[in-house]
Amino acid sequence: MTTEPQRARAVFSTEDFGLMKEAVASYVKQIADDPRSSKFSALYHRLGRLG
To answer: How far is the CA of 39 from the CAs of 7, 23, 24, 44, 46, in angstroms?
Structure first.
């Protein structure tokens, strides 16, 4: 008898990605003059591909 590992459960729902994208967009506006804003902008675009 072979046992297969159980399938991993999703951590985030599809709706969560939309909420995270909205939050990141707001944060990018707040830190527009910060050098890190480009990293958060890239995160925003990656989240858009997921949800």
So the answer is: 32, 14, 11, 9, 11
